[in-house]
Write a structure and sequence with these properties.
mainly beta; 1 helix; single chain
Length: 68
């Protein structure tokens, strides 16, 4: 039985990097970044949650929306 995603929600939140995150992204602690989170649903429940952090000085966010 395969998953059939029917909708998703995406959140974008500004943040400042802690020491661990800054080290991974090779920037200074306290640098600006964005937290992105996507929650994907099928007809009944959550099927996936994806969270990532991107550097604030090197990001571009693209959405391709198809309206019904």
């Amino acid at each position: 039985m395969g998953l059939r995603p029917t909708k998703a929600k995406k959140f974008i939140e500004p943040t400042l990097l802690d020491n661990f995150e800054a080290h991974l992204l090779q920037v200074s602690e306290g640098s600006p970044a964005l937290i992105l989170e996507r929650i994907t649903y099928d007809e009944e429940k959550v099927v996936a949650v994806c969270t990532w952090i991107v550097r604030g000085d090197r990001c571009r966010h693209y959405l391709d929306l198809k309206l019904l």
